[in-house]
Amino acid sequence: MKSPVRVLVVDDKENILKLFEKILADGYEVTTALDGARALALVASGDFDVVVTDIRMPGAGGFEVLDAVKARSPSTEVVMMTGYGTVGDAVRAMKLGAYDYLEKPFDPDAAALAVARAAERRRLRDEAASLRRELAGIHAFHNLVGKSGRMRDVFRLLEQAAGLDITVLLGGETGTGKELAARAIHHHSSRRARRFVPVNCGALPPDLVESELFGHARGAFTGATTAKGGLFEEADGGTIFLDEIGELPLQTQVKLNRVIQEREVRRVGEASPVKVDVRVVAATHRDLKAEAAAGRFREDLFYRLNVFPVRLPPLRERAEDVPLLAAHLLAKHARAMRREVTGLDPEALRLLTSWAWPGNVRELENAIERAVAIASGTVLLPRDLPPELALPAPVLPPGPVLATMPYREVLEQAQDRVSREYLVALLSEFQGNVTRASARAGVERESLHRLLKKHGLRSDDFKRG
Q1: Residue 62 and residue 193 in one domain
Q2: How confident is the model at residue 135 (pLDDT cuts 50, 70, 90)?
Q3: Nearest to 275 by CA among 284, 266, 283
Q4: Whether residue 329 is found in the same domain as residue 434
Q5: Which residue of 25, 167, 386, 387 has the fewest C-beta atoms within 10 A of its own C-beta?
Q6: Which long-range CB contacts under 8 A does 330-338 form with residues at least 24 apart?
Q7: What is the DSSP string of 40-60?
């Protein structure tokens, strides 16, 4: 059961105290004080989420209450009440740490809303403050960060895979951390002292892919002036990570299948094979079984790779990890840039946790890295976040409001939302490559650039770091 929000209301007018007891009857635990001295005693002996206090009272006034609250519990939010002619005092109080103020006479709904907002800010502030402490004891596997049940399952599988020295197939959407998972497997394996060789199969030139993977003899093709070992030989004794393996040509897939089976490579232009002792970890964002059924991927290679499959969940399926990841990434990039940025503003944290993250952890990292780079203080603020986070894509209003809108306006809002989500997914898949993305979308490059600009997106934000 959720604990009630603890509120202290301080005013020398009983009708004000009774009003707050009435409007905060549901979900709040209200304590009242008729004067500042009583309030100071309550603050010294108790813990409150929100304190609502009048500024002008006989004896101890609102400023003394504010000082006492902030000295004992800095995360407790204070809402000041002010009468006519003392608004300046309330503004000064906010500069000293008060969250908000209410000008008397105030509307009861406005007062309830101010307390609710202060309570939510207290909750977010506590959550943000606990992130650094929590990171010290976080459940993690090498550089993968997470505490959700989904990630604990992943960690357990990766640890098992690391100790078995077998082929592993990592699945999951772009940006979910497949390369980090591959590095974690290598780091925890018996091969950790030897090389980890990452290969982006989608970036290999089609006419050179076999030469890059398996090597070539001198004179094997124009420009091959010397013999050269391939990436498999480079990874001998260690691990080769074949990222986006679904992008390999079918002809190369045949040869790769034989390399995994026979543990030997044949350089292009040579007849004699070279023995290699390599552990293969492959990754893809595609459904390789479906690709094999459609004839776009070798079925025999799929079964050769699918010895130990592990799926990395998208960030939307483990949203509880977002605050922890954000704190981890903030510390990482602040250290790398030598910036004194140590925390997240509660509102910035709320924006981060409410975003859908279609680009997954990579998109989150881009957002945090950018924010650390432009932050003007020690705490990341909402204005430091990318515009698409601070000003999220339009969402359709609830049904009753929706029914009052013209059809054309509803259609435009829906089209804007779907268009933006499509662009994020498209650029994520092609890692910011506008040429390939425009070909897939069936539009001209210039048109795609215009669409990206319209929705506040940049292709650079989707490129692999």
Answers
A1: no
A2: low
A3: 266
A4: yes
A5: 25
A6: 330/368, 330/371, 330/372, 330/380, 331/132, 331/135, 333/365, 333/368, 333/369, 333/372, 333/373, 334/372, 337/372, 337/373
A7: HHHHHH---SEEEEESS-SSS
Give yes or no for a contact between 90 and 82, defined as CB atoms under 8 angstroms apart. yes
DSSP SS3 for 200: strand
Alpha-carbon gap, residue 440 to 411, rounded angstroms: 25
Whether residues 283 and 338 share a domain: the answer is no
Measure the CA–CA gap between 40 and 68, rounded to whole angstroms. 7
Q: Which two tokens stand for residue 170?
A: 């990592």
pLDDT in tens, 301-330: 999 999 999 999 999 889 889 988 998 899
Helices 178-187 and 149-164 pack at an angle, to 10 degrees, of 50
Nearest to 53 by CA among 21, 12, 14: 12
Question: HSE-up of 301 (CA within 13 Å, CB side)?
Answer: 25
The domain boundary residue, chosen from 70, 100, 135: 135
Q: How far apart are CA 200 and CA 286, in angstroms?
A: 14
Residue 55 has pLDDT above 80, yes or no: yes
User: In residues, how long is the chain?
Assistant: 465
What is the C-alpha to C-alpha distance for residues 324 and 330, in angstroms, rounded to an integer? Answer: 10
Residue 92's domain comprises 5-135
Closest by Cα among 217, 221, 219 to 229? 217
Q: What are phi and psi of 141, to 5 degrees?
A: -135, 105
* Residue 272 and residue 360 in one domain: no
Q: Where are the beta strands (DSSP E) in 316-425?
A: 343-344, 379-380
Show Cβ contacts of residue 154 under 8 Å, excluding neighbours closer than 6 positions. Answer: 141, 144, 146, 181, 310, 311, 312, 313
